[in-house]
């Protein structure tokens, strides 16, 4: 089958809504396993009371995610995006299954050995995340804005869905023997099945959608070498090699040039996630005191964050509500740091209603600003440059997360280990 005419889109870009649904599901799969682990922190806190799992697991996850994404972003221009993303989703499936196997093999017993096993699985989640999140954001950066927005909404939806499932399983098993463990086992059984679905969707359904084939063909015509395997999976032959004159026209900006031109967007991503992860989930899980909701309190806060984050990622779909001014974005992102003293004083003197409201605002602003930055930054570049820029912004997102989970330990000053 020959390549489609890349100078104009197919009528109505067929398959757009199907692609949005698939992107949403793939976004879910990118963080579903990790969010499952975060959402059953009450089980791990009970199982490993001396090891601060809410903080340690995140701190283990991040260096592996960050180191992997830096390596992958450096070699992005020559990488096979299809193999990269498939490897990530398959690794998510295998490691989700391993959490289940480890719990069953140890009969739900704690101890240092089991905790080290959980930490190793957390590190594998980080490696998988770097493959998938950077690969998918880069791939979708040269496609329609609605597709990357759907993927980013799916990332947030994974948190909202896992929180809802956790509340349901906690209510269902609360009065039964070993209820926390039963809920955790159910969680990772569901997670394993869902990750297998994502492998199938990415491998067989996504590359055959007309809108996806159109944008990948367009990127290939602009010099992208990362999409050839995906084009072949969609039944499209690789475009012929360009002659010397065309090669000069197709020359892309290097990563350093792209970064210098978009350093404000990179800082935006860093600052958004440094603040968010300095509060969520460690502070919300361990430092908000005792309230009338009891053991439900941390779960409710995490659920409110996740739901608000999801809602925030849909707000930019309303065009006049989307913030695209670069200076305006930086001002709003810097103003979010006022949430640090707000959370501190609310934890000490406020009631649970104020804490729930603050947590909701943290999630809402996180989701909204993430979509605004990642959909605005790639505009005006060629396909290969948009792919590279998407990868670079995910690097700064993960650097921000790593900084945030490190800063989160500052809340423990004066409280001891």
Structural account:
- There is one protein chain.
- With 417 residues, this protein is an all-alpha fold.
- The chain has a single domain (17-238, 254-412), classed as Growth Hormone, Chain: A (Up-down Bundle), CATH 1.20.1250.
- 73% of the residues lie in helices and 0% in strands.
- The protein contains 18 helices and no strands.
- Helix 3 packs antiparallel against helix 18 and helix 6 packs antiparallel against helix 14 (297-312).
- It is found in: Membrane.
- One of its GO terms (molecular function) is nucleoside transmembrane transporter activity.
- Pfam families: Nucleoside_tran.
- Keywords: Membrane, Transmembrane, Transmembrane helix, Transport.
- This is Major facilitator superfamily protein.
The helix-strand sequence is: HHHHHHHHHHHHHHHHHH
Name given to the CATH homologous superfamily = MFS general substrate transporter like domains
Question: Structural class of the helix and strand makeup?
Answer: mainly alpha
| Beginning-to-end CA distance, first to last residue | 63 Å
Integer count of domains? 1
State the low-pLDDT regions, or none: none
Top-tier CATH class: Mainly Alpha
CATH topology: Growth Hormone, Chain: A
Helical run tally: 18
Average pLDDT, all residues: 86
Strand content: under 5%
Biggest sheet layout: none
Number of strands: 0
Q: Percent of residues in helical segments? A: over 70%
Shape field: globular
Q: Which architecture per CATH?
A: Up-down Bundle
Radius of gyration: 22 Å
